[in-house]
Amino acid sequence: MVGAMRSETVDVLVIGGGAAGLNAALVLSRARRRVLVVDSGEPRNAPAHQVHGFISRDGTPPAELLATGRAEVESYGGRVEAGEVRAVRRDGGEFDVELADRVVRARRLIVATGLRDELPEVPGLRERWGQDVLHCPYCHAWEVRDQRFGVLGWQQGAVHQALLVRQWSDDVVFFAETLDDDSRAKLIARGVRIVDGAVGGLEVAGDELRGVRLADGTVEALTVLFVPPRFVPNDALLTGLGCERGDDGWVRVDQGGLTSVPGVWAVGNVVDPRAQVVNAAAAGGKAAIAVNGDLVEADLLEVAR
User: Fold this and answer.
1) Dihedral of CA 250/254/259/264: which sign?
2) Model confidence over 44-56: pLDDT tens digits?
3) Pairing verdict, β 208-214 and 219-221
4) Which pLDDT score is estimated for 245?
5) In angstroms, rounded to a whole number, what is the distance separating the alpha carbons of residues 17 and 202?
6) What pLDDT digit, counting tens, does each position of 58-67 carry?
7) In Å, what is the CA distance from 187 to each residue of 134, 163, 166, 181, 182?
8) Are 287 and 259 in contact (CB under 8 A)?
9) Cross-strand bridge partners of residue 213
């Protein structure tokens, strides 16, 4: 970034063009702020066919939802640009943001870079992700209800997920490499069948999941597999700016999304692994209102000088 020329100044630069980032940009554009959204084009829910749990948008394909959001932002004068933020440097109370072709000066930042799902190393699993290998029952379970479910017990939280998905199917099998007595008792009480042993891979035929193959070669027939991923936040920009983490290891924000660094807000899955699309959009709206208020105060101070 050394020696690079600033090409422009915006009130708010939003990093990430998912539901959180776009809704923040929408509210700020309607507030007549100069807004630029920079989006890398890699939404977490790209493999999913539909968005659910979002009133009036239930069943909308994710790509369609985002395209509509971009058009709405642009209709109010905001700009949405495909690209990647290479670096951010704080300069006083503002920020220099390095893009591929220029440096943009931003008075405030909203970071909505999301997270990535870390999955177990099971052959074939990543390829089925978002189709018949699923994570969120509130997002997907209705569409596959009453089928035979499997739950991969590879990490903490898997037992809870098995207890949960039992709500959508009477036929649930839990694949357990290790399992304590209390968890085993809960699963049995909930009517979940337990299969002990390591999982070796998936059985797929005709582009459909047909079962899970154990390490010993045994195949358990099923049509849906739930896998709780490990959530890894895409927060390198935030931590690089000095944003503090909470005790849970995630970047800490207040009710409006403000981080510990003045001028930097963070919203959506980058700070909240449990946020669904509707929650992320709402968080973006709250942050936008907080950012606009902060800019109003900054404008008043400038006038007073």
Assistant:
1) positive
2) 887 888 999 999 9
3) antiparallel
4) 97
5) 34
6) 999 999 999 9
7) 20, 6, 10, 10, 9
8) no
9) 201, 219
Give the rounded distance of the alpha carbon of 267 from its chain centre: 10
pTM of the model: 0.94
The bridge status of strand 224-226 relative to strand 133-134 is parallel
**Would you say 31 and 288 are in contact if contact means Cβ atoms under 8 Å apart?**
yes
pLDDT tier, 4 (very low <50, low <70, confident <90, very high otherwise)? low
Residues for the chain: how many in total? 305
Choose among 20, 29, 79: nearest CA to 273.
Answer: 20
Look up residue 35 and give its amino acid. V
- Average pLDDT rounded to a whole number, residues 238-248: 97
User: What are the phi and psi torsion angles at 179 (to 5°)?
Assistant: -160, 125
Q: Report residue 106 as tokens.
A: 């931003």
Mode of pairing for the β-strands spanning 199-205 and 208-214: antiparallel
Which parts of 31-167 fold into alpha helices (H)?
62-75, 125-128, 137-140, 158-165
DSSP conformation class of 112:
-
pLDDT value of position 2:
45
Higher-pLDDT residue of 132 and 4 is 132
Both tokens of 65, joined, read 């939802």
Which residues, in sequence order, are CB contacts of 97 under 8 Å at separation 6+? Answer: 13, 15, 38, 85, 87, 88, 103, 104, 105, 106, 109
φ, ψ of residue 292 in degrees (nearest 5): -60, -40
